[in-house]
C-alpha cells in the first residue's frame, strides 16, 4: 500500500526519565541521524549513534521503513539496555517519486535496490524531509529539541532539514580520511584535465606526504557519481558536493592515529573540523549484537562459526568476503574457489546469494569444491557474522573487496589482507592497506569490476588467488612483517576508543559541543 504522502513515524517518543534511559537535562545533545540504506553506510552510522548515546546524547535515527527494519534489532537491544536512542521509521511515497512499490525492499538477502531504480529511490528518500521535520517537532521530549543533524553525505537534502530546524549539520563518512582527501584533491586540482585515457596513471596532488606518491587512474577514482556520464547522476554528484562544502563538520569512522596527516589535510582543505570516532564496530565488542550487526537473519549462526573455528589452529584460517554489493561473476567465482582450494589453507568463504545469482552449473561447481574441502573450507551462502569471525584467534587473514568497513574491521582484528577492489573508494582503500599501512597484498585488479557494461569473465586466475593467500598466510619475513604492522594498528585502533583515546575524546567533544544551550521544547511547529 502506498503512503500517498501521509508519512508518519512508527517510533514511540521518548519521555524524559522514561524506561529507555533518557534523562531530563536542559543541555542534553540530541543528534538526528539520517543514514543511507547501503550496509556499508548504514551499519557504521547506527553504531556511531549508539556510541554517542553511551555518552548521554539522545539519538534519533530517521530512515525509510525498509532501511529501519535492518537495524531495528540492534536499536531495540540498545534501548533495552537503557540507551537514549530511538528509531523513527517513515514509509516512502512511491507514487510521488516514481519508485515502483516495494522496490526499496527487495526479496534478496542483501536488500539491494535495482540500479535502474536508484534515482527514483533517492528522490523518494528526499521527500522525507518534511515528514521527518514534523515528527521531530511533534515528538521532541522536553529540553531535547534536535541540536544537530548527522547525515550520510549521500543525503544532501538534509541541508534544508537542518536549516529549517535551525541546527548545525554534520556529514557522516563511512570512509577513510585518506580516501576522502584523495577524491577531494583530484577534483580540486583538476588532476584529470587533459587526460583522455581513463586508465592512464595520475599522481594525486596536494597530499601531506610529498615523498609518497599516490598514483591512480580515472577508472579507479573517478569521483563521487562521476563514473557514469548520466546527467541525473552528475547533477546528484554536484548537489552532494555543494552540501558537503556547506556542512558544519564531518564525523568519520576512522582512527586518528592511523592516518593523522590525512585527517589534518582534509580539515585544512575543507576548512572545518573532522571528528574521527572509529572503529565504531567496537561498540559491539563482546555484546550479543556483535554477531547480528547489520542483519537479524544471518545465513549462519555465530555459534556454528565459532565451533568450526575452535577446531582450527591459531592464525590458520583465511576469511573471504566481498561485502554486500560486489559479486563475482559466474566463472570468476569458480576460479576463486579453486584458488582457495589450491592454497591449502582452511577458509571461510562468504558466497553471497549463490542460489539466487548463479546457474546450476556454477552451483554444482561450488558444491564439488565444498565436498573436496570438507572440514577445511566453510562456504556461507548469505550474510555472515563478519566481526565475530575476524575476532577469532584462528583467523589469520582476510581476502576483501576493500570496502572501508571491512578494511577497518580487519585492522581492528590485527589481520593482514588480500586486496581485491571492485569499485568506488575501494581502489584507494587498497592503496591505504598496501602502500600506506603495509598490511596488504594485491591480486592486481586495475579497473572496476562492478557496474561494468561488459563484465570480464575472469579477472583474477586461480593461481593468483593461491599465491596471494599463501603470501599473506605464509611464514616468510615479509608475511610476518605484515602481521606485525597489523597487530600494531589493532593496538592503536582499540586504544582510540578507550577512555583517553582520540575517538573517545571526539565522542565526548561532540556531545558537549552540540548540547542544547536553552530549552527549545516549545519550538514552532514548522512544516
UniProtKB/TrEMBL annotation:
Enzyme class name: transferase
Region ranges (Disordered): 1-21
Keywords noted in UniProt: Glycosyltransferase, Transferase
PROSITE patterns: UDPGT (PS00375)
GO molecular function, one term: UDP-glucosyltransferase activity
Presence of keyword Glycosyltransferase: yes
Entry keyword Hydrolase: no
EC number: 2.4.1.-
SUPFAM superfamilies tied to this protein: UDP-Glycosyltransferase/glycogen phosphorylase
Similarity remark: Belongs to the UDP-glycosyltransferase family.
Protein name stated in the entry: Glycosyltransferase
Amino acid at each position: 500500500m502506498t503512503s500517498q504522502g501521509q508519512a508518519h513515524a512508527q517510533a514511540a517518543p521518548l519521555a524524559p526519565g522514561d524506561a529507555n534511559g533518557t534523562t531530563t537535562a536542559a543541555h542534553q545533545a540530541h543528534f538526528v541521524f539520517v543514514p543511507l540504506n547501503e550496509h556499508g553506510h548504514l551499519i557504521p552510522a547506527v553504531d556511531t549513534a549508539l556510541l554517542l548515546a553511551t555518552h548521554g546524547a539522545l539519538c534519533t535515527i530517521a530512515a525509510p521503513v525498509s532501511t529501519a527494519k535492518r537495524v531495528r534489532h540492534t536499536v531495540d537491544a540498545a534501548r533495552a539496555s537503557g540507551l537514549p536512542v530511538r528509531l523513527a521509521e517513515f514509509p516512502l511515497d512511491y507514487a510521488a517519486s516514481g519508485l515502483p512499490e516495494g522496490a526499496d525492499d527487495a526479496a534478496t538477502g542483501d536488500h539491494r535496490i535495482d540500479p535502474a531504480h536508484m534515482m527514483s529511490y533517492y528522490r523518494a528518500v528526499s521527500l522525507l524531509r518534511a515528514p521527518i521535520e514534523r515528527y521531530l517537532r511533534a515528538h521532541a521530549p522536553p529540553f531535547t529539541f534536535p541540536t544537530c543533524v548527522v547525515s550520510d553525505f549521500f543525503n544532501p537534502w538534509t541541508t534544508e532539514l537542518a536549516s529549517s530546524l535551525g541546527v548545525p549539520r554534520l556529514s557522516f563518512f563511512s570512509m577513510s580520511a585518506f580516501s576522502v582527501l584523495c577524491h577531494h584533491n583530484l577534483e580540486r586540482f583538476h588532476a584529470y584535465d587533459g587526460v583522455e585515457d581513463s586508465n592512464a596513471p595520475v599522481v594525486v596532488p596536494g597530499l601531506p606526504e610529498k615523498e609518497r606518491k599516490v598514483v591512480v587512474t580515472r577508472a579507479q577514482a573517478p569521483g563521487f557519481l562521476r563514473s557514469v556520464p548520466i546527467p541525473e547522476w552528475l547533477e546528484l554528484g554536484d548537489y552532494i558536493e555543494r552540501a558537503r562544502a556547506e556542512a558544519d563538520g564531518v564525523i568519520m569512522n576512522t582512527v586518528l592515529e592511523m592516518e593523522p596527516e590525512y585527517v589534518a589535510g582534509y580539515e585544512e582543505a575543507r576548512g572545518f573540523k573532522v571528528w574521527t570516532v572509529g572503529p565504531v564496530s567496537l561498540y559491539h565488542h563482546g555484546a550479543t549484537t556483535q554477531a547480528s550487526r547489520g542483519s537479524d537473519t544471518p545465513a549462519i549462526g555465530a555459534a556454528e562459526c565459532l565451533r568450526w573455528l575452535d577446531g582450527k589452529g591459531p592464525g590458520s584460517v583465511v576469511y573471504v568476503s566481498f561485502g554486500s554489493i560486489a559479486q563475482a561473476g559466474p566463472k570468476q567465482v569458480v576460479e576463486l574457489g579453486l584458488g582457495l582450494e589450491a592454497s591449502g589453507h582452511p577458509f571461510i568463504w562468504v558466497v553471497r546469494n549463490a542460489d539466487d545469482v548463479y546457474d546450476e552449473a556454477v552451483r554444482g561447481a561450488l558444491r564439488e569444491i565444498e565436498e573436496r574441502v570438507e572440514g577445511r573450507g566453510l562456504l556461507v551462502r548469505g550474510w555472515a557474522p563478519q566481526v565475530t569471525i575476524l575476532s577469532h584467534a584462528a583467523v589469520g587473514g582476510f581476502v576483501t573487496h576493500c570496502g572501508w568497513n571491512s578494511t577497518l574491521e580487519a585492522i581492528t582484528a590485527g589481520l593482514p589482507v588480500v586486496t581485491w577492489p571492485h569499485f568506488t573508494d575501494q581502489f584507494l582503500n587498497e592503496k591505504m592497506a598496501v602502500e600506506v599501512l603495509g598490511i596488504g597484498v594485491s591480486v592486481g585488479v586495475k579497473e572496476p569490476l562492478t557496474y561494468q557494461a561488459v563484465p570480464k569473465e575472469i579477472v583474477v586466475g586461480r593461481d593468483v588467488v593461491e599465491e596471494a593467500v599463501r603470501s599473506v598466510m605464509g611464514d616468510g619475513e615479509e608475511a610476518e612483517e605484515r602481521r606485525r604492522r597489523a597487530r600494531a594498528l589493532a593496538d592503536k585502533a582499540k586504544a582510540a576508543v578507550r577512555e583517553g583515546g582520540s575517538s573517545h575524546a571526539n565522542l565526548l567533544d561532540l556531545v558537549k559541543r552540540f548540547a542544547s544551550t536553552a530549552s527549545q521544547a516549545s519550538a514552532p511547529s514548522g512544516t
